[in-house]
Amino acid sequence: MAMTGRARPARSRGALAWGLALAALLAAFLAALAVGQFPIAPGELPAILLSRVQGPAATVFWNIRLPRVAAAMLVGAALAAAGAAFQGMFRNPLASPDLLGVTAGASLGAVLGIFLGLPVAAVQGLAFAGGIAAVVAVAVLASAVRGQGDPVLVLILAGIALGALIGAAISLLKILADPYNQLPAITFWLLGTLSAATRGDILAAAPPALLGLLGLVLLRWRLNLLTLGEDEARALGVNTGALRAGAVAAATLATAAVTALAGAVGWIGLVVPHAARLLGGPDLRRLIPLSMLLGAAFLLAVDTLARSAGRLEVPLGILTAILGTPLFLWLLARARRGGGGP
Amino acid sequence: MRPGRRALLAAGAMLALPRAGRAERPVADATGRRIAVPDRIAHVFPAGPPAAILLYTLAPDLLLGWPARPPSPAEAAFLTPEAAALPRIGRLTGRDNTANAEAVLASRPDLVLDYGSVAPTFVSLAERVQGQTGLPTLLLDGALKKIPETYRLLGTILDRVEAAEARAGAAERILAQAREAAVRLQAQGRPRVLYVRGPRGLETGLAGSINTEIIEFAGAENVAGRALGPGGLAQISMEQVLAWNPDWVIAIHPDFPAHARQDPLWRSLPAVQAGRLVLAPGLPFGWVDFPPSVNRLLGLLWLPVLFGVHPVAGLAEAVTAFHALFYHRRPEPAQVEALLRPALPRT
Amino acid sequence: MTAPLLEARGLAIGHGRRVVAEGISLSLVPGRVLCLLGPNGGGKTTLLRTLLGLIPPLAGEVRLSGAEMARLPRREVALRLAYVPQAAPGGFAYAAREVVAMGRAARLPLLTAPGARDREVAEAALARLGIAHLADRPVTELSGGERQLVLIARALAQEAACLVMDEPTASLDFGNQALVLRQVRTLAERDGLGVLMTTHHPDHAFLVADEAALLHGGALTGPAAPEALITAARLRETYGVDTVIGTVETPSGPRRVCAPVVASSGAAS
């Protein structure tokens, strides 16, 4: 699928894209605050917000609903921005934040933590560390194996190889785990959920996630140069190795942090950048912030559905796949019809 | 004051939020945490299946629902109609809740009850649930030996002291008798038991796992070795089964006995030939495990009989009495007979 | 005497242990066009990538304005040397002005995007090449020739003194070929850039080059004046084709042309 776009005057396209994205986020935000299994009438909200009321409704709002809304926005924004950056840097429309194994590594860390019976904070810490460690391992592996080859290709292949190995380790742990307490926890984690997200979790995940996002936002123009390919970028004066390393580090930091918070939520990093590209074009200067807005809105909508569709929580990964697949196919059709392929 | 109040909520206070206009009293749970609960308790949310069963046995009117799934019709035949009709409510584990936290609060429980391991991890998980929901979350010790103690503690918490004492006493007697039977088995030779799960019987519980705890408590030897990890289950092959050559095969899947009787490999086992392949009863709750709650006491009534230490006569009576006391419904003799027939050796 | 913009001395090029060509020496000075000829597989691309510093030489050195390229960071190289690759279809649908603005990368700090001054330079580059009207169009929607011009504009935005172009007329139609070649000549004569371009057509050397060189059989012949280098004998030896080299009258004076002889073997004599 080529990452082309339709011809429209650049300025008006930009304004339209921002407008739509902001509107979507605002709508999702307001809906998420208003919807939930605990009935809070809209009339009660001002009183709760001004802290004049305490009781179950206030608990629900401050302790359960608002942290969850904040978490969903953070996770959605981080995954979408990382996906947009990777799709550009690696010139691959199927790239997702997990390309270099951060989600696999985080999963292994978390599963190991659950298996060892560690408290939640330690599990989250292991997930974060595991995500970072996996990408470092891939980078080391790739540079050891590379020789004269294309650095990008070798990096991707090393990521795939390590991901497979990590998958095997996770499967082994699943077999050895206690089926009462651990296996359900592991399964849920691997699908992603915000059902138990607390303020503390979010306060722990926010700094690295925001730092990573900041890195991506600051580097976004220069990352455009990487989309030209190795030779052209270097000829333009770009230190491609260092830039790639910096961008990968930023994306990995953000992805590892939100994966430690919410588990392995899939599809967002893959699909949302395509939607953002359709709206605003491939220029990463616009694409990265736009992906953040749309990613936040999308996951917010998905999580609102996950916690209110039925009596029981639905893991996020299930819903992102169910909703993401038709969206992806529609985007594919749109791109073919609209901009045409190469 | 506003920032202070918000901080209190945000820090996941140890104390539950006061309910407007309700009196409170402090209680301690099995981990020693002191928590304030309302004076009058009308609804309790069980955090998982073991807690649900415990609560049902002591105070079925307080039960809000079943965490994993509502009882099937076969199970419902042994439960009170009201309990059988309760809905599925999801689990509150503190890290991967299937119960939606808002839905939990919407059903206005007075406290959350968790029953199982009291290792520090689970204490911290209980804290998380309490921090998120603002509800007093009590964790009780699920160890087999502590069942009487747990009943007494729960009776204090729920203000059902007499009922709790009745059950604690009954549990004490069952445990004592099983212990004594185990001592006798130790002397005359411990039976070697293979515990199998699944319709083909190719999964077992390892020695030391919670799945087979009562088998070992009753004095038998689990032929499957010690656990490799916290998980207690393992896949096995027929080769291993034939090598072990157990005295008894205890299955929990209802389809397995039929399969074993016609499968040539299983049929070649002396235990199967001698009719010592038995099916552990599972209605309304399993007698051996799944979930590892007070339902296992029935297993302790049964196993000494199975191994020949206690007389068969009287088992049906004891089972009926247990059901009446713990499950609040006296089963018909035909129901008990149906439970016991596949559970005892064919003569 | 100032150092040449781009200079190769005793260069051996190749990959790993495999030497593709050696003993290569050439130099490029401002205002001159050097055409590099040679058959497919002869090593033109490898030589180009070595001159650009994208792959290391196996022996010898490359110097930019006297400085050893191996010691220069990429940013420094880009300030002196600009690369115009072959325009290829596909790619990302950036607007033409955005593509040209990318040429400013070497002059911008790490975290800075192009500002007003950079945009002015980009606009000026587009105007210089006569394609200012295409500034807002996505490059994927432009014709091959227009895309090539956009890439040249990007190289101009780098404000480097030396341009290295890889077959800038490949896959262009007749009109666009003339367009690009005219621009190459203008950039050298009017703007004083030093231009090195590879080409498959010996005729282009006659059209635009001040000097020509031929890379074939592991060695570089030249650089020399095109008339001296491009002879029928040499072309037959290099390409295996008979050619006729003559002179035609054009409004701006006589010029040499080079045409292959294509006669079918079954022609009646």
Overview of the molecule:
The complex is a heterotrimer of chains A (342), B (347) and C (269). Chain A is mostly helical and 342 residues long. Helix content of chain A is 76%, strand content 0%. In chain A, helix 3 packs antiparallel against helix 10 and helix 3 crosses helix 11 (268-280). With 347 residues, chain B is an alpha/beta fold. Chain B folds into two domains: 2-167, Rossmann fold (3-Layer(aba) Sandwich), CATH 3.40.50; 188-343, Nitrogenase molybdenum iron protein domain (Rossmann fold). In chain B, 42% of the residues lie in helices and 13% in strands. Chain B has 16 helices and eleven strands. Chain B has helices spanning 2-10, 49-58, 73-76, 81-84, 101-106, 120-133, 147-158, 161-188, 213-217, 238-244, 256-262, 264-267, 270-273, 296-306, 315-326, 333-340, and strands at 24-28, 34-38, 44-46, 111-116, 137-141, 192-197, 203-205, 221-222, 233-235, 248-251, 277-279. In chain B, strands 6, 7, 8, 9, 10 and 11 form a six-stranded mixed beta sheet that branches. Chain B has a three-stranded parallel beta sheet with strand order 3-4-5, sandwiched between helices. The longest helix of chain B is centred in the middle third of the chain and has 28 residues, at 161-188. In chain C, helix 4 (116-128) crosses helix 5 and helix 5 packs parallel to helix 6 (174-189). Chain C has helices spanning 44-51, 74-80, 96-101, 116-128, 144-157, 174-189, 202-208, 226-229, 232-239; strands at residues 6-15, 18-28, 33-37, 59-64, 67-68, 81-84, 162-166, 194-198, 211-216, 219-224, 243-250, 253-260. Chain C is globular and about 60 Å long. Classes of the chains: A mainly alpha (342), B alpha/beta (347), C alpha/beta (269). Chains in contact: A-B, A-C.
